[in-house]
Write a structure and sequence with these properties.
alpha/beta, seven-stranded mixed beta sheet, 7 helices, 19 strands, globular, binds zinc ion
């Protein structure tokens, strides 16, 4: 007797279980065999027996967890055969360096796990590719209609205008160390900003890793190596946690900014004492989520990792089969 459709793929609280391969996608605890979509801490954990991921994600994990045991690299577009007759193909997700959607195929059925993704241009990673499938498992971090990320060019212009208006200050931008920081730097370069950009020490290694993977970030300098006066009229990038920290006293009259999709919510900006909120996200906004569900055209959509309810309602209103998954441990560290 044939198995029930899609019985080989099981959403569990700590990850997506691929039953015949006994393998997990982005498990939130250590397992024998993990397929990892990207390097953010809520998806990539240390301690797995085998980790299958893109070479860029494996390099990020090596930097963060100082281990490379059982690393199995899979390039974009490449397919790996797992035990139990399951094929896994890694497809660009447009989220951060190395980020992938994972297409799983078994018994003629196709399931995509997106991990995190966005549809906007990002100079630091290849764009999301729409791929047909039967079940589309999508994130929903910004799954509310209020979330509409403005064009990044507008946010860069805000940042550069503020800098030009205050030549004796610096603008201190809080940005997550993996992905957001490098995207902000690359976008500043694209906007024509050629001056050195100063980094908090915690950002240095990840920026170097991006450069080693061919992402040009221009001249970067460490704050620790420079005097206060050197940094007047400059942009300084730090982790969000350093924005209101004693560390920032070494900077010349810093104007605090933060690059995050959450800056859409004024209260969040106020909580962090952010003077210049920059709405820059590496996740799909509401428009991108709904457009992607339309374009992929799966029979069924499984929604996870965020605000599932509104997207679930939207699917039902548009006659699309959908369900919300109850997964634990996925926090948007990254945005
Ligand atoms: Zn992420
Ligand atoms: Zn995530």
């Amino acid at each position: 007797m044939a198995a029930a459709p899609f019985s080989w793929i099981k959403p569990e609280p700590h990850g997506i279980h691929i039953v015949p391969a006994d393998c997990w996608v982005d498990p939130s605890r250590a397992v024998d065999r993990a397929l990892v979509t990207h390097g953010h801490a809520d998806h990539a954990r240390g301690g797995h027996g085998q980790t299958v991921a893109t070479p860029e994600t494996l390099a990020i994990m090596e930097l963060r967890y100082a281990t490379r045991d059982g690393a199995t690299p899979v390039a974009y577009g490449e397919t790996i055969r797992l035990p139990g007759g399951v094929d896994a193909t890694y497809i660009p997700a447009g989220h951060v360096l190395g980020s992938a959607q994972i297409l799983l195929e078994h018994a003629g059925e196709r399931v995509i796990v997106t991990g995190d993704y966005k549809r906007r241009h990002d100079p630091t990673c290849p764009p999301f590719e729409v791929t047909p499938c039967d079940i589309f498992i999508t994130e929903a971090t910004f799954g509310l209609p209020v979330f509409c990320h403005p064009p990044i060019e507008d946010e860069m212009a805000k940042l550069l205008d503020r800098l030009a208006a205050h030549p004796d200050s610096c603008v201190l931008v809080g940005a997550y160390a993996l992905g957001k920081a490098q995207r902000v730097i690359a976008e500043l370069r694209r906007a024509g900003h050629r001056d050195p950009i100063y980094l908090h020490g915690a950002m240095e290694k990840m920026c170097r890793l991006y450069e080693e993977h061919g992402i040009d970030l221009g001249e970067l300098r460490l704050v620790a190596d420079h005097a206060k006066d050197d940094m007047r009229g400059s942009i300084v990038i730090c982790p969000p946690s350093a924005l209101n920290d004693r560390w920032s006293r070494r900077l010349p009259e810093p104007i605090t900014a933060m690059a995050s999709g959450w800056m859409r919510i004024r209260q969040r900006a106020r909580q962090r004492n952010v003077e210049l909120p920059l709405i820059i996200s590496d996740h799909a906004d509401w428009g991108e989520l709904t457009r992607t569900i339309q374009e992929v055209g799966a029979q069924e959509n499984w929604i996870t990792h965020g605000r599932e309810d509104a997207l679930l309602r939207w699917c039902h209103l548009h006659q699309k089969r959908a369900r919300a998954l109850a997964m634990v441990g996925y926090e948007d560290e990254d945005d």
